[in-house]
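Go through this chain.

——
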Amino acid sequence: MSDKLRTYEKVDHAAVKVTYFVALGILVILLVWGGYSFVNFWRYEYTNDAQVKEYINPILSRASGYVQEIRYTDHQNIHKGDTLLILDIDEAKVQLQQAKAALATAEAQLKVLQSNVKTASTSATVDQAKITAAEAQLWQQQKEFERYQKLLENEAVTQQQFEAVQTRLEVAKSNYEAVKNAFGVSVNKTKDVNAQIAVAEADIEQRKAALDRIMLDLKYAVITAPSDGYMGTKAIQEGQFIQKGQTIGFMVDKKQGKWIVANFEETQIAKMHEGQVAKITIDAYPDEVFHGVIESVSPATGSQFSLLPPDNATGNFVKITQRFPIKIRFSEDASALDRLRAGMNAEVSVTK
């Protein structure tokens, strides 16, 4: 009986020792963890309200038409200038031929008007010469009329001779007026044709603009990648009609790089400033630590940029701690960040 008792005592004693060492180990772990947490709390400002960000650009169609061919797939890696989509250009080709024909017609009409100007100008020059001749003839007839008038007073000529001279004077006057009127008509015709030329030139410029517009539509019928990146989900199909300005898809722009937007509480940002070092942990890769530098601090809280900012002057007020978006640029090379994707959750610690 005593041996069994001694055995039980030894077991109890061993259990107590084990319990003691386990408790001591837990206490040491808690002390280490508490000390580490205290040091981190004292040295860093921490938040888990953070995400990886990249520029996501919409790709817009600059022309209207039916989709003839799609040359990208979901999440495809693309490079600047790669063809993404081609629109049907058959109708635009017909419009191009019509625009070229209309432009050729307008240019031919301009040449006709320019020829008419030369003709009218020549006619005006001839009429101006006729005016000089008619004026000289009128002067001659006027002098002859004055001589015959004096001769008639002296009864040196008959009344019939005087009336014949008087008639020739009236004819000369009428001829002079007719030539002047003809010259005026020629000048006015020249002005009219010049005005028509200005209209024709404006019409040509308009038709050239229409032709350029069609040429642009033909160019815009091929939609290319604006920069290097990754395409999002394909949302259109071949044969679908798209409008000018319609979004055909979204792409993640690799050229602009990646960064972190960390939303810190307003009580944490008092000592934050540009250039501070940050330590970043991505939830998808918890065993890897990234580093970054604060690039900018938002000039307003996130709620102020919302569609309907809160107005504390109305209704019942409940004080809520606000958060400020902090932009943090990665210190690593772009190649080290290839695995990161926009929208990944992160944890950020900023040195105080």
